UniProtKB/TrEMBL annotation:
Membrane topology per record: Multi-pass membrane protein
Protein name from the UniProt record: Ceramide glucosyltransferase
Biological process annotations from GO: glucosylceramide biosynthetic process
Keywords, alphabetical: Glycosyltransferase, Membrane, Transferase, Transmembrane, Transmembrane helix
SUPFAM superfamilies attached to this UniProt entry: Nucleotide-diphospho-sugar transferases
Pfam families per the UniProt record, alphabetical: Glyco_transf_21
Pathway: Sphingolipid metabolism; Lipid metabolism; sphingolipid metabolism
Organism: Oharaeibacter diazotrophicus
Cellular component, GO annotation: membrane
Keyword Magnesium: no
Domain of life: Bacteria
Family matches, as CDD domains: Glucosylceramide_synthase
Length: 392
């Protein structure tokens, strides 16, 4: 029981430290850099595919950036995509902005988004390039925030998505994953010097990537953000995150959509960064609180301590939501509980398989893992599948 008590105490210390660091990032005064003072011209690349939630608002936000000189390049794989008329209408409605739509699919990888954006990268007129997903709502100071994080040790500036405008419970669960779990821990990692790229928003200096082999180098991994992280680190530089990440309007979600998306991301993290994926099992509140219950049941902790433990655990996360300006509601608290209850299952499911489907494309991370690690992981995955079959 002493080991379990130590684990519960350590988990709480990690939880509170993570919340404190993320809250500090949200509250600190906006910085500046030599780059943000110079404000060089920028190419904004926005790969588009389909009519996503709030897509008109997110794409329209491309035209309202507070920056003196930037071009907008929309990229779509097919001229028949239903988003094309919307993009053309937005371009026509903003003649004051230099904007164009490029159509075509350059199959350099298994990653459809990377294939879509290659033509935009080649056509970009400026060396500073921001690649931003179509479902990101861009604030007027988007480029200023990104430039403020760039210094001589930086190779890439990114932003995790912050879920906003959830319209039902499962969208709230997605918010809990995006905000309190992924964004928080990515901000913490960046604060301690271990920043990871996030494909939602990547601000590049083209000559840097060209020296590493160009945009084709990002095809080395299934996920372009994992490849970007490795390219930057190999150059002896760091990935930085903006202090106040950019929002992604969620709308309505189904439980299946949330699960499939989180499983895809978990399998990608497992394959690309296994040492950082492994501790995710312990990152949520489910196992520490279960440990507190066991301690109380055995008389090691008083029963009241379990309630206090859970209150402090989730109270800290609610406080982070408030400080950061992230969505906050009673339903959101229930979503955090559902997220943490699902986390051990998600972790096991990520170990148990390699495949996923993204935008209709069947993909796998099987080739990403080193051979010895892959064999060990597959043995564990087979055991997990056997146990799951036994429960049916």
């Amino acid at each position: 029981m002493e080991t379990l008590s130590t684990f519960c105490g350590f988990a709480m210390a990690v939880q509170l430290t993570g919340v404190a660091l993320a809250a500090w990032r949200a509250r600190r005064r906006p910085g500046s850099s030599a780059l943000s003072a110079r404000r060089p011209p920028v190419t904004l690349l926005r790969p588009v595919c389909g009519l996503e939630n709030a897509v008109e608002a997110t794409l329209a936000s491309s035209f309202g950036l507070d920056h003196p000189d930037y071009e907008i390049v929309f990229c779509v794989a097919s001229a028949d995509d239903p988003v094309v008329p919307l993009v053309r209408r937005l371009i026509a409605a903003h003649p004051e902005r230099e904007a164009r739509l490029l159509v075509g699919d350059d199959r350099i990888s298994v990653n459809p988004k990377l294939n879509n954006v290659v033509k935009g990268w080649a056509a970009a007129r400026h060396d500073w390039i921001a690649m931003v997903d179509s479902n990101v709502l861009m604030a007027p100071d988007f480029l200023g925030r990104s430039m403020a994080r760039w210094d001589e040790r930086t190779g890439l500036v990114c932003s995790p998505p912050i879920g906003v405008a959830p319209a039902n419970l499962w969208a709230e669960v997605e918010c809990a994953w995006l905000n309190g779990f992924q964004a928080r821990w990515q901000l913490v990692a960046d604060t301690v010097g271990l920043g990871f790229a996030q494909g939602k928003s990547m601000f590049w200096y083209r000559p840097l990537l060209d020296r590493a082999g160009g945009i084709d180098r990002l095809a080395a991994e299934v996920a372009e953000d994992a490849a970007s992280t490795k390219v930057v680190r190999e150059a002896g530089l760091s990935v930085r995150l903006v202090d106040r990440p950019y929002p992604q309007p969620l709308g309505r979600r189904t439980i299946g959509e949330v699960w499939r998306r989180q499983l895809r991301w978990a399998r990608l993290r497992r394959a690309s960064f296994p040492l950082f994926f492994a501790p995710e099992l312990l990152a949520g509140g489910a196992l520490p609180i279960a440990g507190a219950v066991v301690l109380a049941a055995n008389g090691v902790w008083p029963a009241e301590a379990v309630a206090a433990y859970a209150l402090v655990w989730y109270g800290a996360e609610v406080a982070l939501d408030r400080v950061s300006g992230w969505p906050l509601s009673v339903r959101g608290l229930a979503a955090k509980l559902l997220r943490d209850a699902a986390l051990p299952l998600l972790w096991a499911a990520a170990l148990a398989g390699d495949g996923f489907t993204w935008r209709g494309n069947d993909m796998t991370v099987a080739a990403e893992e080193p051979g010895r690690l892959a064999r060990a992981r597959r043995r564990v995955g087979e055991r997990i599948r056997e146990l799951a079959a036994g429960w049916r």
